[in-house]
């Protein structure tokens, strides 16, 4: 994994929210963009320590590690403890491509009873609990930027965004939080 401690973190010191929602920059994490054929999922799941999902809009989580289904052969794997995900995937002995994107992404945690309304202020996707249950994930748009949203619990979302767009995304979410607090 790239040394994420040596690089200035985007959104450091940023806070936002309202009476119904809180915006918090997520702690540094390691991430890989993972591509693999279906017959490699078993070996990769064993190496990564969680069942790599194979259905749209699903994720798997274990011990601070998340595997998010983004497409038929594509996942975003996040480890909140900074594990060497490229090395773990390599140990699977299965055909795959793993690219370290730890420096490319950052995340914003959106939590509270107004979290859904906050994100929906800039996202066209239905994020209701019925349509987007706990564990659901999706690559979508927030305003004009691509994001990956993971629902952690009924009132908490992890919004993954490229660091170069993080100020924009945080600002848009802060505006949404103000509206959700009304």
Order of helices and strands: EEEHEEEHEEHEEEH
Enumerate how many helices there are, as a single number: 4
Q: In what order do the strands lie side by side in the largest sheet?
A: 1-2-8-11-10-9
The residue-averaged pLDDT reads 94
Evaluate the radius of gyration. Answer: 16 Å
Helix content: 10-25%
Low-confidence regions: none
Total DSSP E strands: 11
Quickly give the structural class: alpha+beta
* Strand proportion: 25-35%
User: How widely separated are the two ends?
Assistant: 42 Å
Largest sheet: 6 strands, antiparallel
Which term fits the overall shape?
A: globular
Features:
six-stranded antiparallel sheet; five-stranded antiparallel sheet; 182 residues; alpha+beta
How would you portray this structure in words?
The chain has 182 residues and is α+β, with helices and mostly antiparallel strands. 19% of the residues lie in helices and 34% in strands. It has four helices and eleven strands, in the order E-E-E-H-E-E-E-H-E-E-H-E-E-E-H. The chain has helices spanning 41-48, 85-90, 115-120, 166-180, and strands at 16-17, 22-25, 30-35, 59-62, 65-71, 74-79, 97-100, 105-111, 137-142, 145-153, 156-162. A six-stranded antiparallel beta sheet has the order 1-2-8-11-10-9. It has a five-stranded antiparallel beta sheet with strand order 4-5-6-3-7. The protein is globular and about 55 Å long.
Summarize the structure.
Helix content is 19%, strand content 34%. With 182 residues, the protein is of the alpha+beta class.
